[in-house]
C-alpha cells in the first residue's frame, strides 16, 4: 500500500472533523440532563456545544484551500 502525499487543506479537514466530534459529544452530554430529569449543566457547557459549528467551518476552510490548490495545479499544467 502506498501512502498518498497530503494535499493542502487536509490538516484543516482533519482538525475540523475532530473539533466537530468534540462538539457533538458535548451536545449529547449537555442534552442528557433534559431527558434524565437531572440538574442542567452550567452555561459554559452549552458554549462548548458551539464547537460543532466551529469544526464545520474549519473543515470547510480546508476544503476550499484544497480546491484552490487543485485549481493552481491545473492552471500550471495547461
UniProtKB/TrEMBL annotation:
<feature type="transmembrane region" description="Helical">
    <location>
        <begin position="44"/>
        <end position="64"/>
    </location>
</feature>
<keyword id="KW-1133">Transmembrane helix</keyword>
<keyword id="KW-0812">Transmembrane</keyword>
<feature type="transmembrane region" description="Helical">
    <location>
        <begin position="12"/>
        <end position="32"/>
    </location>
</feature>
<keyword id="KW-0472">Membrane</keyword>
<protein>
    <recommendedName>
        <fullName>Integral membrane protein</fullName>
    </recommendedName>
</protein>
